[in-house]
Design goal:
The chain has 19 helices and 19 strands. The protein is an alpha+beta fold and 663 residues long. The chain folds into three domains: 446 residues, no CATH class; 114 residues, no CATH class; 89 residues, Galactose-binding domain-like (Jelly Rolls, Sandwich). The protein is elongated and about 90 Å long. 47% of the residues are buried.
Length: 663
């Protein structure tokens, strides 16, 4: 019975984590990280329906193979909402399975069960596992990166053809999960060089890795030829990274920022533990071949991934890209377990240097990176963002430095019999951060759902009588077309996407730029749009019949030909509040009247301008609704008219602002 106790405990850990993470994931009501989540869901479903990665019948390009294949089956087999729930349950299990290679690798390194189990538990405790509630490649990448590192260490220990084949397979799985994993090739080279440094060996030993390196070169060449002979790019969705210039100094700074983020993400101690193990190996004091291989691999992964993400973030992201480093956490927790197994050695010089470096890194991390906008890419900063709102920038910086210093003092001064406090403290910090992050993303995701699709995400399918055109006018522009992606994910009746003016939708989707003729006709490339139904924000009214509304969007059954009656700007969707000025453009403006109902909590003076000219001035009384009607000058059918509401200081609510046509 005792022989099976460790296995039972590990299974209980994985099972418990899966249940907890699924419970948290189930509270996330809809995809939030746009357009990534919706894209993976749609191409996953398309993979099982057509055998291709398509969105609205258009090739979506190579984004990932493993992850869409993982979540696509439940999304294909089940109704959308049930498939989404099943995909999140699968995600909770997959991320929780990362504990298995961590525990097994630790035991292979002759780490005691208690420390091996601690490393496995810490692997499942961090805020990053909140990604199990999202349709993101991080879900699969998390355990796969750990597994690839283990295979690399095994190959370094004993470079048999079998071990090299396992490593090659692991690299291929990682790359087909996320193309970011191409960095594993230079990481392998760096790990080999570190191994030679630790063992004081010659370069001749590298010949034993000839089969692996040759296979990698052959595969890379074949892939390059395959993509160039077709219409694809060698790096798929990452091809953009090759077409921009990089500043080496900025890339170096961002790499250091991400090292600081690794300290925060793992509660400081694991990173310092790896640094101490690295110093021990460089000094040739580590006798275990297995541990030397592990240290070489772990150090190479940290250096390689932080350099890669620093380069990427410096030019393309401009903030922390923590989620691209998430797979390093299990290696760092394993480093902590190995260091504890070694008796937590803390040589004065190495400990002092590591402590000073850690403090300098967190001190150099700009507080501006800890913000609400950065949250989707850096879950570990979410509790710090909550703290920032109470302490301010200087207070938060001081709190981070003091907390780091206290942890480092504990690490340096604890007696050997008390070193268990270090993983326990890390667990407390990680769990607290995880709770904070889970609550935050739940609020954000559910709020985004209310804005974009409302309480019933499938409302378009329920009320549509045929194919629907989604007309996007740039609402919630910060999301890069989030309302389009949200509706497309939940509703299969959307047949095409139209954008008005310069507004665009980010991501692998074909959106047709539409213009509005003076009589309201929707045109694409000068041709009339053929559509029997359309969805647009409540700021747009069509010639036709209102069918239903979800969130800020309305479904219309259109009178042919498809024509827009009016379009409003400057009024917040859902709340109908006016900050400074609002404008309504009316097409085919004749035989109608503007009807307004306006109010403000405080007295306000408004100007109403018809076609750019002052029509009247209105003095709003506090808390009193003003009602008015304005008749535009009679115009030819194909002309437009516009009414503007100009406020003095904002704070005006529009109960009604519409153009009512006669008859």
């Amino acid at each position: 019975m005792k022989r099976h106790a460790p296995t039972a405990a590990l299974l209980a850990l994985v099972g418990g984590s899966t249940l907890i993470r699924f419970w948290a994931a189930h509270r996330v009501g809809a995809p939030w990280i746009t357009p990534d989540e919706q894209t993976y869901g749609l191409i996953g479903r398309s993979l099982y329906e057509s055998g291709r990665f398509e969105i609205l019948g258009r090739d979506a390009g190579l984004l990932s193979l493993v992850y869409p294949a993982l979540i696509g089956l439940p999304l294909h087999l089940l109704e959308v909402e049930n498939g989404y729930t099943a995909a999140k349950a699968l995600g909770a299990l997959v991320m929780s399975l990362a504990a298995v290679p961590v525990y097994c690798w630790a035991r292979a390194l002759r780490v005691e069960r208690r420390w091996a189990f601690a490393a496995a538990a810490l692997t499942l405790a961090g805020p990053g596992l909140a990604f199990s509630g999202f349709l993101m490649t991080e879900v699969a990448f998390y355990p796969i990166i750990c597994l690839s590192a283990w295979m690399m260490a095994r190959a370094l220990e004993n470079p048999t053809l079998e071990n090299q084949a396992f490593l090659l397979a692991a690299i291929l799985v990682a790359v087909t999960t996320r193309l970011q994993a191409v960095v594993l090739v230079p990481i392998l080279v760096l790990a080999l060089l570190l191994t030679l440094l630790f063992e004081r060996g010659g370069l001749g030993r590298l010949r034993r890795f000839g089969p692996l390196l040759g296979a990698l070169v052959a595969l890379a060449s074949a892939w390059t030829l395959l993509t160039r002979s077709g219409s694809g790019d060698v790096l798929g969705s990452y091809q953009v990274t090759t077409s921009i210039s990089y500043d080496p100094l900025a890339a170096g700074r961002f790499a250091l920022y991400h090292l600081a983020d690794l300290l925060i993400m793992t509660a400081v101690v694991p990173v310092v533990a790896l640094a101490l193990l690295l110093a021990r190996a460089i000094a040739a004091r580590e006798e275990s071949v297995q541990v030397r291989a592990f240290v070489a691999v772990a150090a190479a992964y940290v250096i390689g991934f932080t350099a890669q993400v620093g380069l990427f973030a410096s030019s393309l992201l401009g903030r922390l890209g923590e989620r691209y480093l998430l797979g390093l956490s299990p290696l760092l927790f394993l480093a902590l377990a190995v260091w504890l197994q070694r008796g937590a050695p803390r040589p004065a010089l190495a400990t002092g240097v590591a402590g000073i470096a850690a403090t300098a890194l967190v001190l150099a991390l700009p507080v501006r990176f800890i913000s609400e906008a950065a949250a989707p890419d850096a879950f570990s900063t979410i509790p710090l963002f909550e703290l920032r709102r109470h302490l301010g920038d200087p207070g938060l910086k001081l709190a981070i430095v003091l907390a780091t210093g206290m942890i480092l003092v504990l690490l340096a001064t604890l007696r050997s019999r008390w070193v268990w406090v270090l993983p326990a403290l890390a667990a407390v910090l990680l769990v607290a951060g995880s709770v904070s992050a889970s609550r935050f993303v739940e609020r954000q995701a559910n709020g985004f759902r209310r804005l974009t699709v409302g309480d019933d995400p499938r409302w378009i399918d329920r009320f549509a009588e045929g194919p629907v055109s989604f007309v996007y006018g740039g609402e919630y522009g910060f999301s890069g077309g989030g309302p389009v992606w949200a509706s497309l994910f939940w509703n299969r009746s959307i047949a095409n996407v139209l954008t008005l003016g310069s507004d665009h939708v980010v991501g692998p989707i074909e959106a047709h730029r539409a213009s509005i003729a003076p009589d309201g006709r929707l045109l694409v490339g000068g041709r009339q749009v053929e559509a029997g139904a359309a969805v647009a924000s409540s700021a747009v009214a069509f010639f036709g019949h209102f069918r239903n509304q979800g969130g800020s969007y309305v479904l219309w059954r259109l009178d042919p030909p498809a024509r827009i009656s009016s379009r409003v700007s400057g009024i917040r969707l859902l709340s109908s509040d006016i900050d400074v000025r609002a404008r309504m453009d009316v097409y085919a403006c004749r035989d109608g009247v503007f009807e307004l109902e306006l109010a403000a909590p405080e007295a306000r003076r408004l100007e109403l301008r018809l076609d750019g000219r002052l029509n009247r001035t209105v003095d709003l009384q506090a808390g009193t609704v003003w009602k008015g009607r304005i008749t535009p000058r009679v115009r030819a059918e194909r002309e437009t008219c516009a009414l503007e509401i100009v406020t003095q200081g904002g704070g005006v609510h529009a109960y009604r602002f519409e153009f009512v046509r006669s008859g």
